[in-house]
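Revision sheet: C-alpha cells.
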Amino acid sequence: MASGLPQRGPHAAARILLWAGWAVAAEAAAPSVLPLLAVAAATAFLSAPARRLLRKLLRRTRWLFVALALAYAYTLPGTPAWPALGWASPSIEGLAAGGLRAARLALLLAGLAVLLGLTVRARLLYGLYVLTAPLALLGFDRRAFVVRLGLTLDYVESAPAPARWLDALRAPPSGDAGPARFSLAAERWQARDSAVILAALSLLGIVLA
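Predicted:
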C-alpha cells in the first residue's frame, strides 16, 4: 500500500461503516421514521455524482421493485383492494407491505449511491482492506482480495460491451494480464473519524429505538 495522497473527508473505512449503519437503519427502522431518513438522504443528493448514480441504480433495479410489489400484493392475505376483480385483486395489506419494502430498498440504494458517488474507487478498496484486517487472523489474504477486486472492476469498466451476451461467452479470453503493480494510498484514522462513527451509532440507536 502506498501513502502520501491528501485525505479529504472521513476515512474510507469510516465511510463504509456509515453506509452499513445506514443500511441497518433503512431495514430496521419503524415505518414512521422512514420519511425522516428520506429527507436525510435527499440532502445528500445536492452532489451531482450521487444523483446520477442513484438514477442509474434505480433504473437497473426497476424490475426488482416491480417483482417485490407484485409478490407482496398477491401473496399476503387480506382485504381485496378492488373487490370487483375477485381473486385477481391484490390485497390492501399486500400493497402496503410491498410499498414499505420498496421504500426500504430505495433508501438502501440511496445510501449506496452517496457512498459510491462521493468516494473514489481506490479509497473504497483501501477501506475494504482496512475493514478485513481481522480476517487476516483466520488466514484470509486481504491484499490478494483487494487486488483481485480492483483489477476485476477495472476490467469490467474497460472491457468493450458485446452486442449480445452470447458474444461475451464466445469471446476468447484477453491476453492482457493487467498492470504489473496495483497500489493504493494509505489513509490515517483520525479523531474526527471516531467522532463521526460515535455520532452515527448514537443516531442509529435513536432511530431503532
